Amino acid sequence: MNVHVVPMATPALDQVRHNWTRAEAQAIYDLPFNDLLFRAATVQRTHFDPNRVQLARLLSIKTGGCAEDCGYCSQSAHHASGLKASKLMEVQRVIDEAKKAKAQGATRYCMGAAWRSPKSRDMDSVVAMVEGVKALGMETCMTLGMLSDTDVAQLKDAGLDYYNHNIDTSERYYSEIIKTRTFADRLDTLSRVREAGIKVCSGGIVGLGETDEDRIDMLVTLANLDEHPESVPINMLIPIPGTPLENRKKVDPIAFVRVIALARIMMPTSFVRLSAGRTEMSEEMQAMCFFAGANSIFCGDTLLTADNPGEDKDQALFRKLGIEPMALENDPDVEASAENATEHAGCGCTGHTSCQTATSAR
């Protein structure tokens, strides 16, 4: 009888690298599925507790009317999605919502505005939101589009922990989805944020019509940055009526799990966030994503403008899997909240680049 011995993860798969080649990444992606999951799970256990998942909450602080033409996004002014533009939310309302999220177990609070880039007149309010949420003992994240040096300096001074700006897809396929800004523009904003000492949240969207090679190239781009993004959201497209991508085919679940596993292996110390699209995922698919290395989710009923599993569903899934929310270090309030994790196991957050968290959360 022939016995197939599953290869152990090599040291290279456990190490933090920034020199991945497409050929190396492709070879890992193409492994037999069981071997791929074994390697990803091994890397996961080297750096994280496999039964703890970070919970984040995402709030749209300014919805609709965005000048960008991102083909997946309901908030673009270029599309006939029927979404009306709103004004920037009041600071106190944002802080009140953050208090609710913390009480439900969220440790990171992400705030997203549907802007190409913020206007100077809005930055005082944005700064006040960051300061107010940080005062609650939560990690803060913003997604406001492209940033100038002045914008970055203000966010840094306010104490912002993370900035979300997804690259969305590969450089090759990018112009098929977005024409109002370039792939290089995205990388430039990430560079500004990193140079200022703010942590980076950046990932992409699966299901835009891209190839497997585009998905791999997207992850190679992120993994070969000088520093890996601390958070890597992987979104599954939610085809929204009125957008150019409303008729895109549903993503194959096994292919999506392969992307999660490859992200975990290539960026071993990053939080890999299972983001938009969870409403279309079965419990089995989500469980497989957690096994493959996802260790962060958004919680709450909505992600910007898209639906998200409610707390009851996430609570039930966490109980079945024996997963508990990850507590924020050195915060006794959050530690206490985590002790009641079974009551609030469905909370999460994160961001995108001012829209596809609605269809691609962060």
In one word, what is the shape?
globular
Radius of gyration: 19 Å
What's the total helix number? 13
- Straight-line N-to-C gap: 48 Å
**What is the structural class?**
alpha/beta
Strand element count: 12
Low-confidence stretches: 1-11, 330-362
Helix content: 25-40%
Strand content: 5-15%
User: What about the largest sheet?
Assistant: 10 strands, parallel
Mean pLDDT figure: 83
Q: What is the ordering of alpha helices and beta strands? A: HHHEHEHEHEHHEEHEHEHEEEHEH
Q: What are the main properties of this structure?
A:
single chain, alpha/beta, two-stranded antiparallel sheet, 13 helices, disordered C terminus
Your description of this structure?
This protein has 362 residues and is an alpha/beta fold. It is globular and about 55 Å long. Helix 2 (22-29) packs across helix 9, helix 3 (33-47) packs across helix 10 (253-266) and helix 5 (120-134) packs parallel to helix 6. The strands form two sheets. Strands 1, 2, 3, 4, 5, 6, 7, 8, 9 and 12 form a ten-stranded parallel β-sheet that branches. Strand 7 (231-236), helix 10 (253-266) and strand 8 (271-274) form a beta-alpha-beta unit. The relative contact order is 0.19. The longest helix has 15 residues, at 33-47. The protein has helices at 11-14, 22-29, 33-47, 91-103, 120-134, 149-158, 171-174, 183-195, 212-223, 253-266, 283-291, 311-321, 332-339; strands at residues 52-62, 108-113, 139-143, 162-164, 199-201, 204-206, 231-236, 271-274, 296-299, 302-303, 306-307, 324-325.
Write the layout of secondary structure elements.
Elements (H helix, E strand, L loop, with lengths): L10 H4 L7 H8 L3 H15 L4 E11 L28 H13 L4 E6 L6 H15 L4 E5 L5 H10 L3 E3 L6 H4 L8 H13 L3 E3 L2 E3 L5 H12 L7 E6 L16 H14 L4 E4 L8 H9 L4 E4 L2 E2 L2 E2 L3 H11 L2 E2 L6 H8 L23
Parallel strand pairs: 1-2, 1-9, 1-12, 2-3, 3-4, 4-5, 6-7, 7-8, 8-9
Antiparallel strand pairs: 10-11
